[in-house]
Amino acid sequence: MARSRGSTATPPSRRPRGSLSREEILEAGLLIARRDELAGLTMKKLAEQLAVTPMAIYRHFTNKAEVVDGVLDLFVRDAAVTEHEASRNPEDWQRWMLCTFRRMFNALVETPGVMPFLSTASRFGPSAMAVLDTILGVLRQAGKSERQAVDAFAVMCAYTIGSAGLASASRVAAGERDSEEGLRQIRLSIESAPRPDYRNIVDGAADLARILQSFPFEMGLELLMQGELRGDND
Fold first, then answer.
1. What pLDDT is stored for residue 44 in this prediction?
2. How far apart are CA 34 and CA 40, in angstroms?
3. Consecutive H or E run containing 45
4. 3-class SS at 187?
5. For residue 203, how far is the Cα from the chain centroid?
6. CB 3.0–4.6 Å: which of 2, 52, 93, 195 could bond 202 by disulfide?
């Protein structure tokens, strides 16, 4: 039967008291981060997602910052960046790092809404601690000093987050355009520059268009590892 004019939708039924878990709250928060970005997370929106009152969430978390910390750690856990088949043998450390940070890059590109919060989390959660410890362990086994291992992690992590941000922005800018058509438009835009003033840019239009459309993350990471991160122990 058609709903009469002026009627309103029936609000979702509330859950039984005490049926909400901390894990379920964090999973709902991560869903919001993937759909609406983590910046849009509010206790009210989270409560609506879970069909509970905000007070039910406050029984598990002191404030929103604590929820955000938990969502970030759940994101790290789900990304499972160190769980791959590459060998951890010292001689294969570069390949292992490439696999690890490729997984990190892909996870960030798929969930760009978490990136602004990565540097503001009030603490490392257990999943983030496990990832950091594993990466540092592989670098130490490869012969890096404690300081070199930490510096290498910081450089690769910063490069990965920055690259994911650029890749996400490029994806948004491209919208629904066909990849081949998008590449053609970028190349034509570069080639339209006055060649006498920008000879090197115009001559490199095809390669520049390729780079601008698809950020060469893996190539850059390999260059980092083969150069700046390859030094001998002090």
1. 92
2. 10
3. helix 43-50
4. helix
5. 34
6. 195
Distance CA 228, CA 222 (A): 10
Which has the higher per-residue pLDDT, 214 or 108? 108
Neighbours of 146 (CB within 10 A): 11
Residue carrying structure tokens 């989390």: 121
Select the more confidently predicted residue: 135 or 196: 135
Residue carrying structure tokens 């893996």? 218
Contact yes or no for 136/122 (Cβ under 8 A): no
pLDDT for 55 equals 92
Measured between alpha carbons, how far is 144 from 41 in angstroms, rounded to an integer?
Answer: 40
DSSP codes joined into one string, 50-97? HTS-HHHHHTT-SSHHHHHHHHHHHHHHHH-TT-SSS---GGGHHHHH
**The one-letter amino acid at 171:** R
- Token pair for 66: 């604590």
In sign, the C-alpha dihedral spanning 56, 60, 64, 68 is negative
Structure tokens at 78: 């789900």
Q: How many CB atoms lie within 10 A of CB 17?
A: 10
pLDDT tens-digit readout, 8-59: 443 445 655 667 999 999 999 999 988 888 888 899 999 999 999 999 999 9
Tokens 């978390």 identify what position? 61
Ordered alpha helix ranges (H), 115-198: 126-141, 146-174, 179-191
Is it the case that residue 197 has pLDDT exceeding 50?
Answer: yes
Q: Which of 112, 123, 98, 94 is closest to 161 using CA atoms?
A: 112
